[in-house]
Amino acid sequence: MAELFVLLLLLLVSVVYGDDDAFVGVNIGTDLSDMPKPTQVVALLKAQNIKYVRLYDADRAMLLALANTGIQVTVSVPNDQLLGIGQSNATAANWVARNIIAHVPATNITAIAVGSEVLTALPNAAPVLVSALKFIHSALVASNLDGQIKVSTPHSSSIILDSFPPSQAFFNRSWDPVMVPLLKFLQSTGSYLMLNVYPYYDYMQSNGVIPLDYALFRPLPPNKEAVDANTLLHYTNVFDAVVDAAYFAMSYLNITNVPIVVTESGWPSKGGSNEPDATVENANSFNSNLIKHVLNNTGTPKHPGIAVSTYIYELYNEDLRPGAVSEKNWGLFDANGIPVYILHLTGAGTVLANDTTNQTFCVAKQGADSKMLQAALDWACGPGKVDCSPLLQGHPCYEPDNVVAHSTYAFNAYFQRMVKSLGTCDFKGVATITTTDPSHGSCVFPGSVGKNGTITNDTSLTPSSNSTSSGCPPQYFYGTGSFTTSVMICVLLMSVVFL
Description:
- The protein is α/β, with parallel strands linked by helices and 499 residues long.
- It is built from 14 helices and 17 strands.
- The strands form five sheets. Strands 7-6-5-4-3-15-14-11-8 form a nine-stranded parallel β-sheet. Strands 1-2 form a two-stranded antiparallel sheet. Strands 9-10 form a two-stranded antiparallel sheet.
- Strand 1 and strand 2 form a beta hairpin.
């Protein structure tokens, strides 16, 4: 079935002030008239190799569907439950028992977001916000889950005033009675500040002051970069400026060791007549560039080289959301799991990307140890029962004659033969999945779409029910031209056996 793929990707880099890996995840909203079943949502997540998700509640069916997938889940206390939890330790303990303890460890819950943008969306609950976090955390401590599950609360970036230059930014002082104890709680529990960063809104509200390219991470000439006159730091995009503004705002409250996780960021793909920049092209540019920015471990000018983990808003277009047209069009997919656009991720490393032909390939991981590649190649062409004859000298895939190219062909042939099943593109960590077709010249890889649009699937890769192993272990060595010699010796030995 031709399924369209988006990407999301989740590669590993270092998070600020810790040993955790940075990631790109997705938010899963449910305001859809035809919301997919939890099992369908999880199937899409698996197909896209999405390993980090944030839920806006703690829906039991969704948590059960996520069980035993390894996907790391942030669950949420909805705003309408915040007052009760913030006023009662027992209520908080019951919430944790029902929504957390009942699901771990099968479901890999790693964080709890208590409320959402409470200070700006539900200010009357602000006085009990810190109490709610503490009560939830105490319940986790009682169950010995506090080391595994962090507790925080997402904030709108609008609580930061005078956000440019970032070095002069500070939190709205009227919220100091909440922010000071909140940040101290995050610091003492080893948690992080959750921040929603929307360059789209910053751009829209700037009345032309912020250039579109600056909001979309597009390259800027040096004379167009924004410069913080106090630090002389150069800013090439809104996202970094807002994140650094939050770091500086925390430092003014004497908090310097709480990392930031961006819990929401994205760009709408469609808008009304008064939203001319909510387009597919701009949404694609923003999310593609955001992903590259995180995966390249670019960091921010204040913290260069340190990536900021980010959840893209959002997985699905939510057609039931009220408000402007753009509110319904932030998703990467529609309700049928079809991508709204194809992410441009070339140059961002090996990642999954949406593709109208469901093309995914298994390739040798960049920088993988050559000896491990060789061992994996030997296994694929031997016990793995891959037809490696296209790699023989004089055959289409012989060149380039090196272990990376040949193992890529063998890995992919095995992956396709196993119907791209979970775990069949690993080979002890030296293989990874990509949507970039590795075919070249006359060497057409299994799973590749040919010039006539047909998908190449070498049926010889699928062993028959009575097939047996040749008993000839392949030992392929590169750099000396011995690959062909080794295979030919194997063929001669097989001839002796069968003649």
